[in-house]
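User: Hi! Is it possible to get a structure for several chains at once, not just one? Here's what I have:
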Amino acid sequence: MSERNRTVPRMGMVGGGQLSRMTHQAGIALGIDFSVLAADPRDSAARVCGDVVLGDDRGLDDVLAFAKACDVVTFDHEHVPEPVLRAVEEAGGLLRPGRRALRFAQDKLVMRTRMAELGAPSPAWRAVSAPEHVDAFADEHGWPIVLKAARGGYDGKGVWIADGPEEAAVIVARAAAEGVPLLAEEKVGFRRELAVQVARSPHGQVAVYPVVETLQRDGICHEVIAPAPGLDEEKATRAQQAAIEIAHALDVTGVLAVEMFETAEGVLVNELAMRPHNSGHWTIDGAVTSQFEQHLRAVANLPLGAPGTVAPYTVMANVLGGADPDVYGRYLHVMAKDPGVKVHMYGKDVRPGRKIGHVTVTGDDHRDLLARARDAADYLRGDDQ
Amino acid sequence: MSERNRTVPRMGMVGGGQLSRMTHQAGIALGIDFSVLAADPRDSAARVCGDVVLGDDRGLDDVLAFAKACDVVTFDHEHVPEPVLRAVEEAGGLLRPGRRALRFAQDKLVMRTRMAELGAPSPAWRAVSAPEHVDAFADEHGWPIVLKAARGGYDGKGVWIADGPEEAAVIVARAAAEGVPLLAEEKVGFRRELAVQVARSPHGQVAVYPVVETLQRDGICHEVIAPAPGLDEEKATRAQQAAIEIAHALDVTGVLAVEMFETAEGVLVNELAMRPHNSGHWTIDGAVTSQFEQHLRAVANLPLGAPGTVAPYTVMANVLGGADPDVYGRYLHVMAKDPGVKVHMYGKDVRPGRKIGHVTVTGDDHRDLLARARDAADYLRGDDQ
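Assistant: Yes, the chains can be modeled jointly so their relative placement is included. Here is the combined structure:
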């Protein structure tokens, strides 16, 4: 550490994506010495961060060396293999979240098993390694069945819907051939999808954000409405309590995002992420403390910031890449049409369907906000012009 | 420009201070390629910015080379000499604001002359180069008299209060010896000090922020309350209109800060700055579009963002350096005591009295907010512990 501010931690973030990029922005205000381990100088965070270490952000040697140069290390993805995390911790590196917590974000079987132990509300599930496992599970819960890779996946996918035994058999065979462990889950008849962000610091302080609604198409989050309109208070409290209990039980440090299904009866835990998450991007413009600042404060073991909102509603829409790479050329229209829209671009190469940014609007009427956010995001993608 | 986004401008900011640092943060969200010309790698912006050019941020060769590598250049201070600005423009460099506009922020005599031509409400003033000029001015307006260096100053000062002829004579003699041109101004019996930020783009769009109250001690801005409490609407409108008229008349591009005095009758223009300004730092947390984003949008010739507020009141307090350089060690108390306070540190070496950061709070009751902001800023300075 420098002599100037002896107690300022040198914080390292593994991975150079947009989550690192936006955490860097938050770190500037906090005056934290923030460093990024990025695989490529053209990575989203590497383009803007003052302290970039280039290296393999999943590899033993580079992560280990990076951790040795930092006081504390956190992550913008969950793809650092467990043996690498173990080696870093054994070498005295301080990981937040730590290896034991990260397992639950890295492996859906480990996660589901732990959720069951905790009694967290969850869809029915079982590990499957043969077609007959899926068929037996479907006998109980009915087709279609959701099949998920516990870790990784193949063909760029980790989730499949099997409508019947033949389809399931193909997926199981393919996964077995690729060495991908699978689990089956009931296809929940949900009303909508929700998410909760909770931050937890090493000594156990938590701060929980309002429950948000996430709007997904083709398994990709397109928009987030914060807070979830019309969600009854009891369900909202149950969702927040579940997120807090999970954060404590898994000993999470930093931000935990819990994606949920809202059903007629309550909420079910769908996925976990132990980092700032797409469903929390709205907090940059819509909350007193953004999820990125909150993550840094938690990881640095500082008291957490107020998670309250600055407007009745905030809507976030992801900007996906379209056919035309010239996004900047479309700013003119979007900004002139709606001076209240907040544009957040990630500096990423434009590829069709890739998340390259997001937009946010705040105000009173969530339907109006959703229309405005969609309009801006659609225009920035540019395919309709 | 890169092939990736052909139309993204490479924006350069001359000067590596906190204004560049906070503009860099805003540039990340806009996905603008942002570069800083900094004198020292330890400068506030140089510590965090991904694209730092080291060089003399007032010198011909370095500013010229920097401008050649950028599509458009702006400034975090007004200290680049006029001949350097001229050489850059003659070489085809695009300066925003341009040399002709910057003169009015660089030379108080030029500024006062132009304000008089415009009929902008101003204190009485005259150029003085001999003690008898001051005495004659004082005969008309009464002692004490304010003496200002038109450019620069000496002993680190540019403004003096002369209580009588003897004091004035000493200041005039000293200024003459140092080659510093002086002007005399009446000492306005103001109720309070105000400031207005207005952004103007090259094609003449303007966006004006609410009029704020600035609280100064020993000539240093300590706190800002936005909007100015209890300011009557007519005065507020007159202040905003004056700022807009000045921005147009001086052909300003970017943010113009107009510091004013509120008197019984109206408002008087005190100082101009053509860049993001301390009196506008509240906009980061308190406005839909921060002054830093607004400055970038104006300089990049993008449509301006909404300047509206996100809360009834926002209060900003500067954090000054104290005797103890370990500011970070004091975060724990400030953040635990008030989770709603927003901390913005500049990564600067701590020296007593130096602005090293600011804090902001938003809410309904400006008195409560001022107390909270002062408390946080005082504690971060640390002298009372």
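Residues 1-5 of chain A have pLDDT under 50 and may be disordered. Residues 321 and 351 of chain A are 5 Å apart (CA to CA).

User: Great, thank you!
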